Amino acid sequence: MKKKLLVAAMAAGLGAVGTAHAVHVNHDGTGQVLLYPYYTVQNGFDTYVHVVNTTNRVKAVKVRFLEGKNSQEVLDFNLYLSPYDEWAATLSRSANGTIITSADTSCTAPALPAAGVEFRNTEYRGDSVNSVARTREGHIEIIEMGEVDSPDHATAATHTSAGVPANCALIRTAANGVFNTVTTLITLPRGGLYGYATLINVNAGVATSVDAVALDGFFDSIDSYADLHSQTGSLSPSLESVNTEATILSGVNTYTFDNSVRPIDNVSALLMHSAIMNDYVVAPEIAAMTDWVISFPTKRAYVNGGVRAPFQEAWSTSRSASCDPITPVYYDREERTQTPAEGDFSPTEEPGAITLCNEVNTLSIVSPATAGAKVFGAAFTNKELALDSGFNAGWLRIGFPNDLGLTRARVLTDGDVSLTGLPVIGFAAMSFENGTLTVDGVNVLSNYMGSTVHKAERTIVAPTPLP
Q1: pLDDT digit string (tens) for 98-154?
Q2: In this structure, are 239 and 129 located in the same domain?
């Protein structure tokens, strides 16, 4: 029988955790796929998006923006990065929804006009909540489609000494033509991308940056000219395009997970956690506020057109929701603890249930004195967790257990390795106000903000490790 768990020493001896033929979270921060847990243009915030090519090859990349309720695509395009190139863009609030603008000269297909491009509600018009305003909160996927191997096209995409690519028009023509029909122009994706997003509120004087989660080994083949390139306007590639088994690092062990029938499970397995933990501060004397962003990047593959484990409820177009129960417990900094009573969240989707109902959830943590306070001012993905009086600072644990009388087991399995929980990423954002201070006779705004990535627990059942 194929052993699914190797002790770390053996894994190192065989060539480390992330083998060439296994998708894995690259904890060094670079990869073929970048998952940004959040963007927002609510409450005075803009989101600045960055992606960097750390290699000496021209990269063909799919950039995809997804709204936060059900991860429906609101805009995507192809991006062609020069060697060592960095691309940046800004998401801002428009009259109806969200607009993307960029002064960056890297080649995109189609071209991004100087006036920007509005996000669209085409993919969710059948939902009860279907306004373009829903695009104002969401998350981002960037998927490497391959490397440009054609010398002419590589030169066309590469920046000249003038700081602009040599011939973006040639690249845009190829994006909807020969790149998709001539097999020798694009080679395998090989990784080396990293990214981050900066959430900035200029008027409030606060900003924070959040790294993208990097997945490497996402796509591989013995054919060096296999690739994921798709024309513009296509919903492909997606996270369901993974074609490799998963390698999961947990503690001192590595696990191999492979569902060849539903490859998306291999991506979900990398992100499966039975609980997440992070800090909160809600002290009213410094106007402290805390929002947790809790994102489920693969959820749409499990709840649209039916539902399957580990998620519990199919997406409802009439309610514009798909809810999963959770178990929160919070602590102050002196080890006092409290479990929220059922119904502490608002608004309530199901009587008596503590649930998260979106693919991106913006959870505002509040005290009795700060009720209604929101860092990001989310409208479509917001939930509120009210803490008891006296719990102004501490930490919170949110569990995704499998013992709540669930309709479906909260487990992913390939028949050998089983993982309990939900596929989740995210961070906590905390903001503080000290008012206006006088420094050297000058009045200055004294506001602060920071973010910390969620910590997590895994629950894995696997065969006995090799001796």
Answers
A1: 999 999 999 999 999 999 999 999 999 999 999 999 999 999 999 999 999 999 999
A2: yes
For the chain, the maximum distance between any two Cα atoms, rounded to a whole number of angstroms, is: 75
* Domain hosting residue 200, numbered range: 31-243
Q: ∠216-229-215 over CA atoms, to 5°?
A: 10
The answer to whether the beta carbons of residues 112 and 102 sit under 8 Å apart is yes
Within 117-167, residue ranges assigned H as helices are 151-157
For 3-19, write each residue's pLDDT tens digit: 455 433 334 333 334 44
120 and 31 Cβ atoms separated by less than 8 Å = no
Collapsing DSSP states into helix, strand and coil, what is residue 136? helix
Find, among 65, 108, 101, the residue nearest to 85 by Cα: 108
Strand-pairing partners, residue 65, are: 75, 140
Residues facing residue 52 across a β-bridge: 86, 194
What's the number of domains the chain is made of? Answer: 2
Same domain, 293 and 233: no
Query: For the whole model, what pTM was predicted?
Result: 0.93
Whether 235 contacts 300, CB under 8 Å: no
Last residue of a domain, one of 243, 260, 293: 243
The yes-or-no verdict on residue 84 having pLDDT over 90 is yes
146 and 288 belong to one structural domain: no
Residue 9 belongs to a domain: no
Calculate ∠ Cα 29-34-38, nearest 5°. Answer: 105
